[in-house]
What does this fold into?
Amino acid sequence: MIKLIKLELRRNNIRTYVIASIIITIVMLGFLYLFSYAPKLEPTDKDLEVFLGYNNLIPMFGVLNMTAFCVLSAVMYSKFIIEEYSGKRSILLFSYPVSRKKILCSKLTVVSIFTIFSMIISNLIIFLIFGETEKSMQLVSGDFTASIMLQVIKITIVMAFIAASIGIIATGIGFIKKSVAATIVSAVLLASLMCNIVANIASSFTVIYIFGLIMIFVGILFSINLINKVNLMEVE
It folds into this structure.
């Protein structure tokens, strides 16, 4: 499996996705400052009160960053799986003296691990920078303490796994039509749904964790279904 993972990394230009992750981090850092400063622009706007404290700000920002990495994950899956198993390209994959299951699992592993780790690193860098600037700027009510950073870490890990799971679910949907567009659109729609859910339960971390476990379970089911479909594919 490790050799197959190394092969996938050589066959696909992972540097492109690293650059994309860096760009996402820079843009999301800007959004975090925008969210934090928004209540000061319109003090009477009750809708902006959700950004006043860290308990709401952390999950709200976490799900926004998750949406960006969901799209990145969908783009990677489109390249690694949808395009690879479309048309004559699948003939080359099926000619390898390795089981179809192992080849697909290596692709799923590469994209999932990249999505999870890149989002965790991105979010932690963003909040570490934000935490340092908060010592002098005080955009958000309350001090940025170690317990706040611990909340950031917990939410980030959950959101990172949700992002990877949504990417797999979107790939399963796009695989039906062998459509890159369907994969990316599905990821955007699923991430948008997640944003709406978190917006309503932002202060309930327990519910977010439970929902995260459900998404991971669904992602595993879609992975199994995807493996079964590839095993039953006929070479065109």
